Backbone:
């Protein structure tokens, strides 16, 4: 079971890397007011959601202690991120995103990372 859990932790990290990487590639454009939520950001957030739910289930099945408050906070942040990225995603219209909204997604993404690492 541990190997399966570690596999999904790795996939979860790949999801956060895609979300944060997509954000970081658009920071110069954010300064110019032309930032977009690229597909990598949406796919990364969805990967995080799916793998996070699977990780909770696998850890419960393996009788590990779960910090449900931490999981709830991380889930709430991720749902906000997903909502913003999905609604304003870069589709065929090439919609530009407001600097503040784009920055908020980056801030929430980094908050999610620090909650995962620092909240014990």
Residues:
């Amino acid at each position: 079971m541990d190997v399966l859990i570690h596999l999904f932790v790795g996939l979860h990290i790949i999801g956060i890397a895609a979300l944060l990487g997509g954000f970081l590639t658009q920071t110069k454009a954010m300064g110019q007011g032309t930032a977009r939520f690229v597909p990598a950001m949406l796919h990364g957030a969805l990967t995080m959601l799916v793998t996070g739910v699977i990780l909770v289930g696998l850890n419960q099945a393996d009788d590990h202690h779960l910090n449900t408050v931490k999981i709830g906070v991380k889930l709430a942040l991720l749902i906000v991120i997903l909502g913003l990225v999905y609604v304003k995603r870069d589709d065929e219209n090439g919609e530009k995103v407001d600097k503040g909204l784009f920055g908020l997604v980056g801030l929430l993404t980094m908050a999610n990372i620090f909650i995962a690492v620092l909240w014990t």
